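RECORD TYPE: inverse folding
INPUT: structure tokens
STRUCTURE:
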């Protein structure tokens, strides 16, 4: 009886220690996994910095109207450089759950070469611009032009002009809702 009275508290204490060790082992395993993940997170952050990925999108602090104005400025400058003639420009917004699309709908005319050049420039700059809608229609024009110094039987094809309507947007992430 005396032996069980002395060993009872010792055995109970031993069980408490075992339970605490098991809990601490689980915590240690989680912390070890976090430590391993920390290195992967550092690598991802380093690649993010090295690849300048932040420049791919507009800051989420920038108001959608300001993003749309910047998109308008960039697109009209690109169209001017590619010798396209801008006809109309209007605001164009695409709200979504996680992103806000802010931009413009623009109508312009130009040769197929100038359109191709403009589209390449629009889609390759930073922050990224996305062509959401595109409609290209040929403009009615004389198909053939006579060369000035060539004889009358030889004719030269005139470059095809087209009218293009584009919706160009930049997507910005929306602030995440807490809760």
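DESIGNED SEQUENCE:
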């Amino acid at each position: 009886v005396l032996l069980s009275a002395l060993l009872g508290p010792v055995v109970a204490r031993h069980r408490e220690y075992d339970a605490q060790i098991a809990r601490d082992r689980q915590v240690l395993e989680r912390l070890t996994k976090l430590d391993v993940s920390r290195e992967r997170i550092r690598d991802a952050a380093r690649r993010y910095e090295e690849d300048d990925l932040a420049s791919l999108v507009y800051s989420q602090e920038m108001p959608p109207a300001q993003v749309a104005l910047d998109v308008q400025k960039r697109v009209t400058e690109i169209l001017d450089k590619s010798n396209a003639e801008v006809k109309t420009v209007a605001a164009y917004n695409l709200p979504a759950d996680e992103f806000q699309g802010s931009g413009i709908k623009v109508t312009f005319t130009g040769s197929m070469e100038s359109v191709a050049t403009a589209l390449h420039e629009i889609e390759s700059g930073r922050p990224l611009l996305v062509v959401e809608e595109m409609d290209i229609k040929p403009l009615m024009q004389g198909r053939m032009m006579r060369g000035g110094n060539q004889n009358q039987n030889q004719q030269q094809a005139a470059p095809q002009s087209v009218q293009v309507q584009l919706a160009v947007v930049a997507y910005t992430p929306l602030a995440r809702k807490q809760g």
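NOTES: The mean pLDDT is 83.
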